[in-house]
Amino acid sequence: MVFMIKLPPALTMSPPIENQRKDDRLSLLTNLHRSYGQTDSGITPYGQESSSVQQQFSHQQQMRNSSFSHLESEKMFCLRQQFLTAAGIIVVASLVLCVLFLTTFRKVPTDDSYLNMDTMSGTQEFSTHGQVAVKTSCGHVIGKLEDEAYVFKGVAYAAPPIGPLRWRKPVPLWVEGAWCEEHRTQEAFEFGSECFQLNPYTKQYQGSEDCLVLNVWTPTLDTQKGGLEVMVWVHGGFLQFGNGNEPGISPNAKLAKKMNMVFVSMNYRLYTLGFMALDLLSDNILTDSKGNYGLWDQLCALQWVKDNIKNFGGDPRKVTLFGPDAGAASIMALMSSPKAQGLFRSAWLVGPTMVFNRTFGEVTAHNKGLFLQRSGCKEARCLRKSMAQDIIAAHLGKDDASFRIRDQNDLPIQGIFPEQLIVMDGELLQEPPTTAWSNKDLKSIPLLIGSAAQAVDFWPGPDDLPTWTWNQYKKYVTTSLDSFGLQVSQMALRIYNGTALQANDSNFTAEYLYTTMVSDIRQSCPVNTLSKQLSKVSRSPVFRYTLTERPSNPVKLFNYTAKYSFHLWDLIAFFGNIGKFLPNSEPEDTEFADVVQNMVSNFVKSGGESVGNSDWMRFPKKMANLARNITFGNFNKTECKFWSESKLDVYAWLFMCLSPSCVCWHRRICLWRCWTRFSANVYDVLRTLPTANVYDVLRTLPTANVYDGLRTLTTANVYDVLRTFPTAMMTFFGPEVMETELLKLSTI
């Protein structure tokens, strides 16, 4: 920067007129003396006569020289004052700019002594931009104001589970003193990394193992008014994918402000890194967990909430957990654990599962046979040094990551029960939830339980479902359900009939009938059974609803466009994010969002004793149909009775193993979907089974299905399968088919 300085005239005067200027200065000085109250004695006015001209001239000359010298001093003093004033202004302006710069772009110091925390509120706002510091059990976290609520993103609650901490219980940061000392102040302005996962939609690996963070949204930081209700979000994703800040399906600042509640969400370890049951990973029997690492993460985060949420304006005694599918399953597991007692007082379960009763020993035996073999490791040290991507790849084998979700949203095949990720580990989970809930030593909690009428419509099994005709629908249902008996498929087609479809009724498409049927089997009816079990053993209220409200226009949630009452629609409405998924939303969509928010608000703020509707009685006396206008009735009573009598109600959503090899592990099962969905991996499945089991499996299938399945395998795999089980194959196919196939192979 260049500064232009204009000098005063006194410093630019030319020498020839200096004598004239001296006279003028003398006159000016005389006037100045008079103006300050001085007499003019001793000062001879210009032109006055004296008795001695020489003396007069000499005296006058001395006076002029003296006056000139005095005048020069006065002028220099004035100039110096002007210079100092200008310099002072520049310095002050520079300081102001520095303060503004540091306030806006400063780095938070590691020394928190400057915070001068208020011991009553635990917070101190120190910036004009709404940034605040809150004291926790592990130093301070710095958040900011967004949409009239305080937001703290990516707050670490446990040490990174990497290296030697992989497949171990989380280490709480308030226990890890060294970490807290090093990170006494955390900036909480950005969401942390999601836990490492394979995205089933993009088929890409994403996230990091350093992911154990949580987020807080609060409308106030005042702790002197008793504290607000706290809602803790446990995200879903089939225990395979997801995070606590999924856009549109997670808490936000506007919701916290509108509901006047504190919201918390968390990340927890997923899939192989979060739920691998393998005995060799439990080096120390006293301290190591036997699987369920993701559940231990959730427990650790809830302990953080209990210890710290008061400083964020919440009441640790008023915590409600809520989550969908796998999140709801996790909450149910925590409900049955003595270690989670006292950490929450109520729960909202959206599309929960009801089955996880396998023991650690049963599941670890399976993982030894497949996962360990594919990993190339024989000891825990090798596994803990392996790349996260290689770990998941070893668990999946050649299988498609999306298979697990698609198969859960399809009609079941008799005998196919996925292996479980959540196991009875003897510590966190000592017995199945339905057994534990009847234990009087466990405190029961109020529950709000929901399901959706067309739950699977967010991503159903068949790709071409929207274009189905009645005949295609009939053929698919018959082929899938025939494994349960011909009468089952015929009755199903009568109950979920195509009369309206054949009459071209737009409200009853093949997609509508199919998604309703699958949703009844997979979610609605099993959730009814679960709710009845809970209401019998619980000493607290259980409220039940089925979502029947449809979006005003189709919604593309993941890779599919949903048209009906799909799973998560009630949560999207609750979070106030309908506009994110439905830009062309209608007023009825907003009305529905208000209904859901009012329902949940009443449930949470009443401690689970009410949902704000006097007609809504505890289940099983009443079940609500959740829509803009809530009605009551026995939703799908006839349908659920049929599925229960047909023994299909046990095929509920199971958020367990993703590998098709798990699906095909059992004896005497129909492998039709194995052939059509993941035939490349059938060889891995078959070769692990005893010959007798393979024969039992194969003989339940129509010959054409097995033959088509084998035909899609690589030649080498087919040959290995055939020659490994010659007796079974010969018996099944007959000598002519075997001879033909072997002849084809011999020519390669």
From TrEMBL:
Name the keywords, alphabetized: Glycoprotein, Membrane, Transmembrane, Transmembrane helix
InterPro entries xrefs: AB_hydrolase_fold, CarbesteraseB, Type-B_Carboxylest/Lipase
Annotated transmembrane regions: 83-105
Q: Which superkingdom is the protein from?
A: Eukaryota
According to the UniProt record, where is the region Disordered?
Answer: 40-59
Q: Where is the Carboxylesterase type B domain?
A: 133-643
Show the ranges annotated as biased composition (Low complexity). 48-59
Q: Which Pfam families match?
A: COesterase
Q: Which PANTHER family match?
A: CARBOXYLESTERASE
Protein known as: Carboxylesterase type B domain-containing protein
- Species, as recorded: Oedothorax gibbosus
